[in-house]
Amino acid sequence: MSQTTPPSDPSASAPREGRREGSLDAPTRHPLDWKNPEFWNETALEKEMERVFDLCHGCRRCVSLCQSFPTLFDLVDNSSTMEVDGVAKSDYAKVVEHCYLCDLCYQTKCPYIPPHEWNIDFPHLMLRAKAVHFRNHGAPLSAKLLSNTTAVGKLASIPVVVDMVNWGNRQPALRGAMESALGVHRDAQVPAYHSPTALRKLDRDDSGEGATDAGPTRGKVAIFVTCYGNHNHPKMVEDLVAVLRHNDIPVKLIRQNQCCGMPKLELGDLDSVNDYKQRNMPAMSAAVRDGWDIIAPIPSCVLMFKQELPLMYPDDAEVQAIKRAIFDPFEYLMHRQNAALLKTDFKNELGKVAWQAACHQRVQNIGPKTKQVLELVPGTQVTAIERCSGHDGTYGVKKATYASARKIAKPVENRVNQSEAQHFTSDCVMAGAHIAHGLNDGTTAEHPVTLLRTAYGI
């Protein structure tokens, strides 16, 4: 099993003769071996964590990414030996708590990822630790509720109920009660809910006729609206549909769907991830078989189907077919542009745009496609901010981690201020709202597809 296979000398954190310092080979990702009984062996897990933590301690390249690494290094530096062997195994959980599976350490920083013989996959090791803890100890009811985005969204989007929920989220006294009951920090930005939802508002689906291929795309799109897009930000989905149809791309919505599973993955609840996968497969697989491409407007949802589920189910043909068929919205539009099929009949300039590159979009290794598309608009200059927002779903709202999330967001907020932009945007609307909340100057985060619709004047 990849995550429990140690190097030839597990205690070594410096290269020996014949061993390279780092790797220049193309990275590979081992499947998540979660069905192997050894995956759930707590003793084997602790041994692997000690091995990886020792190597991370000797490198420290990832110290600026998230709170996991400073937490680890502080534990080491304050231990009696000033080495990993001086850190209590019970304190490993403090490192795990601060990993929200952004994947940046694996994709952008770590020189020891496979095929390097040290075989470090820090995010999936943290995922394994979360999964083992969840199976052995469960999770608080509040954590289970916050990660059940479909159920919460359905309840909160009921007419009349939606007004009560949104009103309550603005009341300091009720936010204090929510902090006590659910662990949601009273100062955290929480999303509004909408009724009708995106699936109800967008009730017309195209037949798919007239589709034109472009690169790997087949020219007709089935949209996985996402929980957030359906219940919290239907305008984002409306704008995406409008932009696609303006570019003569037939569109339909995938109407039988469950959460992509990312919130449950981050909780370590792999059984729920499996359940959601089973419920999503029929409609998504049918769309792919019928020649539709898939787009999701939230980077985390794209990443779930493009990376995490394929690594959990490497031999599942349906999962692998969806992996090949799903695209980030701006990745898709750039394929149209490269085939001279993207319309550039823009009516409005955007001016200066500050764009926070969402972590789960960056790690898809597609390049800055959002920036490239927006810069096709005349009179538009995009400042890219490639720093984490610190939000990551529940991490940015939980009382236990809110202060750390704000600390991580601060450099992004500074860059937004320095840009003096007319628009602030992020492909992750939750990250965008988190940053705008920290700016506290009236700035509103706009989704990039909303800016593109504005530029088209449609």
Describe it.
- The structure is a single chain.
- By secondary structure, the chain is α/β, with parallel strands linked by helices.
- It folds into three domains: 2-137, no CATH class; 198-334, no CATH class; 343-456, Rossmann fold (3-Layer(aba) Sandwich).
- 48% of the residues lie in helices and 6% in strands.
- The chain is built from 22 helices and eight strands.
- The protein has helices at residues 42-59, 68-77, 92-97, 104-109, 122-137, 141-146, 149-156, 161-168, 172-182, 198-201, 227-232, 234-246, 262-267, 270-289, 299-312, 317-325, 329-338, 359-362, 369-374, 402-419, 429-439, 448-456; strands at 221-223, 251-253, 293-295, 326-327, 351-356, 380-385, 423-426, 445-446.
- The strands form two sheets. Strands 2-1-3-4 form a four-stranded parallel sheet, with helices on both faces.
- Helix 15 runs antiparallel to helix 16 (317-325) and helix 20 (402-419) packs across helix 21.
- 48% of the residues are buried.
